[in-house]
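In this supplementary section we document a worked example of the pipeline. Step one takes a protein sequence of length 388 as its only input; no multiple sequence alignment statistics are reported here. Step two produces a three-dimensional model, which step three serialises into structure tokens for compact storage. The input and output of this example are shown verbatim.
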Amino acid sequence: MDPLDRDDDIPEIREGVRALCARFPGPYWRELDRERRYPEDFVRALTEAGYLACLIPEDYGGSGLPIAAAAAILEEIHGSGGNGAACHAQMYIMGTILRHGSEAQKRRWLPDIAAGRLRLQAFGVTEPTSGTDTLGLATTAVRSGGSYKVNGQKVWTSRAEHSDLMLLLARTTPKDKVKKKSEGLSVFVVDLRAALGKGLTIRPIRAMLNHATTEVFFDDLEVPAENLIGEEGRGFRYILDGMNAERILIAGECIGDARWFVEKARTYASERVVFGRPIGQNQGVQFPIARAYAQSEAAALMVRRAAALFDGGRPCGKEANMAKLLAAEASWAAAEACLQTHGGYGFAEEYDVERKFRETRLYQVAPISTNLILAYLAEHVLGLPRSY
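The serialised model returned by step three reads:
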């Protein structure tokens, strides 16, 4: 399969990302995974090459590229055997500042983010008691003079230990004082460097995969009022604006994973000889790989459609959700086929299959679970009764 055979007009970007990723081969990722370390060198290289600033407009020091390009960057990272978890959040989080921040806020943060002087990679939304029920979050931000006092807890806040800034969603108006559940939530930019030890505590969570995830505790943390994004109480709408972008970018990662697994399985099946013949000669080995390939290519079409609609400023909630659903299922099917093709060797660290297998399983659950996407499609697209 020709890696340049992609239905887009950005082959130079793809080639550049692949060349960069070639400097960080399997052993680099295995060591990080084994030691649960953050990919500091990889993130620095991506930043210096300008890839993490691809969605920031040129007026603020970025490249001003469409989301299709950002999805392609993440796809190539995953397709090269790496992982873009340390990168994707910065791409879509900054969109909240760009779309809803004041001009002063954009000038304050975006150029430094684009240049790599600031990292905005942490997103504080999910809480232990509410999970994906974002409207049920309990973290509060109460205005006190020129600042807000924040109290509460967030969980699964990845990269908080490796980020300078965090985007935080908190309740500024009690639920019993709003007309709609979606009202009364506000978005803030928290300077983690200034907050740590002064009302902010970060605790790592050891998980199945190396995503540097944490839980974050707020105890009367003071956040300057000037760090409020947009209008107080309209934060949930601002967050929703970024969710389509998030789904498209994550879907791009899934396509990269799927293509990596298919290629890995294809190569091994062609070279591994058992009973005097390549195992890939057996239809029992061929068919799962072929089916996974078909699934991944079909999902890629939906990702491109969703990205095209997003970049055209058109509604794309349906397509973004379907892209994420289909791409996550394609990557998992490809992972299963690849592991089965390798047999026992698939469980050996040196083949990278078991690491990627664990990593791609996440996308059935996060950043939104498959079941919630199906519920969205059922209600908002098919017109079926609301299920939750």
